[in-house]
Hints:
alpha/beta, TIM Barrel, 4-stranded parallel β-sheet, globular
Amino acid sequence: MTGELGRVALPDRTVESRLIVVARAQRATDYDAVLDVLVDAGIRSVELTLTTPGTFGHLPRLLERFGDAIDLGVGTVTNSDDLARAIDAGADYIVTPITSTAFVTQAKGAGVPIVPGGLTPTELFASWSAGASAVKIFPAGQVGPSYLKDLRGPFPDLVAVPSGGVDLAGAEAWLRSGAVAVSIGGPLLGDAFGGGDLQALRERAAAFVEVCARSAE
Length: 217
């Protein structure tokens, strides 16, 4: 669905869950077992990172296996060729750590949601005014939830997703401050991609799901 400026809305499951898990693994085949646990724990949106070797090659299998249960985005996109590949591979949304209005235009043209990163008001507004689906406040741990409240002064309609350094308490605080969703990596995944306890992963994921649901009340 598109709105003003041709803005493509974020997927419904991502918005409703208010939580994106950033999966950064040593290799793409490690995704499967972890995603099994995340889905079972109630996670509904996962960003697969291009710093994980083999992500593009493994994405079709993941979409076939998990696509009915979760939104699968592609993140750490830093050039237009990878953006095109992510779109062609069927990513539900695109995440980039940088501010690029050209990326926004490219994704909008394909009808795919995009969340560009930035930290300063100028960077965030540039992406938002170009028609981004949302903006990624990154690294969010350097500013804190009150930053979004300050941004809402000049930019009342800004749709924001904080990422980087957001823990369980921070997730609730950011959502209470108006974030549409929070992007969580290490504080939720822990050592899951390094052979860690998957039951512990399930418990961490369930805790984040509960906090994000509570913050919507």
